[in-house]
Amino acid sequence: MVEKNNIVVLQADLTNESPEIEHWLKKFNSISIPLTTIFSASRPTEPFVLRDVYTKSKLLKYLEKAVAETRQAGVLTRTSANVVR
Predict the structure, then answer these.
(1) CA-CA distances (angstroms) from residue 60 to 14, 38, 63, 65, 80?
(2) In principle, which of 47, 50, 71, 79 could form an S-S bond with 36, CB 3.0–4.6 Å?
């Protein structure tokens, strides 16, 4: 799914403190990890947000929604999935 749809995956590791990661956690009102945000190219300021524990099927559902929205909008860019662990 990721390679086929040109999805960019960024993963941040919270093993060491990081102001950048703290910023993203605060931005999405999350105090727990993992935090996964999926940005559709057609609505880059309104990501799908998955917190805590979630299933593979739930993740795939939101990735598919983001890809579908991007295609419907005719946006020729990448969909991004950011994971903070």
Answers:
(1) 24, 11, 5, 9, 13
(2) 50
Nearest to 66 by CA among 80, 84, 52, 85: 80
Domain boundaries, the chain: 8-84
Say if residues 72 and 60 touch (Cβ distance below 8 Å). Answer: no
Could you give the percent of the chain with pLDDT greater than 90? 8
Task: State which H helix or E strand residue 68 sits in.
Answer: helix 56-73
Answering whether pTM is above 0.90, one says no
Amino acid at 83: V
